[in-house]
Amino acid sequence: MATAVIFGAGVMGSATSFPLSDKGHSVRLVGTHLDGEIIGEVKARGYHPGLKKNLPAEVKAFQWTELDKAFHGADFILSGVNSHGVRWSAETLAKVLHKPLPIIAVTKGLEAAENGDLLALTTVYEKALATAGGPGCSVSAIGGPCIAAELAARGHSCVVFASEKGEISRWLADIFRTSYYHVWPSTEVYPLEIAAALKNAYTLPVGIARGQADQPGGEDSSGARMHNPAAAVFGQGVKEIKYLIRSCGFNDSFASSLPGAGDYYVTCAGGRNLRLGTLLGSGKSMAEAQKEMEGVTIESLSIIETMERALPGLLERQIVAMDRLPLLDYLIRTVREGSAGPLPFERFFPEIHF
């Protein structure tokens, strides 16, 4: 059995304690400097306030001040920090790790290089760890439809673990896999991360379509709820994710599989990115919508801003063409202008000829 350290006490990272405990592994939940209250609750009564339930009794909780003790003897780390904390997390781990350990991250995000290349957060994480003087750890990624509350309820969830080192993704998959947490190993890190990150951005216009349909005149007198617009946006979103992955030189199969369409579907079922889109679709400005969601990290905005930075370089090198990305173009204009206009349905699906 392995000793796992979950670094960051957010809901997704903490939810992975269920399959790990059910497999008989030793699980340590370590809070960041922002997780003091959560770890206090887990220490006191085993209760996780974010998941609204008790964690497995075998989980041992450690405060931020107990890092050395928490990481001593660990076999691998699951990073549960969000995309904004990747470099901080790497710098912190560099101080407490004395040998290379496999790291697997639940974080979804992308960064843009100066030439427009999209940088996977696993690469950013590894480089930041090395820059901070840490050991040469290999960082893997998780992609697929997995809501934290459902995993904590031991509901069936299907995901992909990706590492450039196949032996690591296979080893981690074997460690986590249970009768309800179904894990497939892969070496396709970049396409997985591009799909997993972009789906957050493309959830925003699905919410916009729903918000616009809920306005006066959106529901027919017969009671028809107007799901068609959101479905068309979803279809175009999948196509653009596939196009971007392929244009960047990678296998695009994940766009229509678990890390892409699968994760995209479940993200459109609810959550912060969908809610922001719904508020924008209802007629609220970006400032008004964000104020209503104050204190909530909204990944879609970060991804859209990253894509806006990446596009000039990608366009200059003729890697992508904007006529293939009407929805991304709409998203960039929405964020820039601070409000949602009509969705550009007439620009969708250019490959369908009349």
TrEMBL record:
Keywords: Lipid biosynthesis, Lipid metabolism, NAD, Oxidoreductase, Phospholipid biosynthesis, Phospholipid metabolism
Residue sites binding NAD(+) per the record: G8, A9, G10, V11, M12, G13, A148, R272
Domain Glycerol-3-phosphate dehydrogenase NAD-dependent C-terminal intervals: 192-335
A GO biological-process term: carbohydrate metabolic process
Enzyme Commission (EC) number: 1.1.1.94
Binding site for substrate: K108, R272, N273
Source domain of life: Bacteria
GO CC entries: cytosol
PANTHER family for the chain: GLYCEROL-3-PHOSPHATE DEHYDROGENASE (PTHR11728), GLYCEROL-3-PHOSPHATE DEHYDROGENASE [NAD(+)] 2, CHLOROPLASTIC (PTHR11728:SF1)
Family that this chain belongs to: Belongs to the NAD-dependent glycerol-3-phosphate dehydrogenase family.
Protein name: Glycerol-3-phosphate dehydrogenase
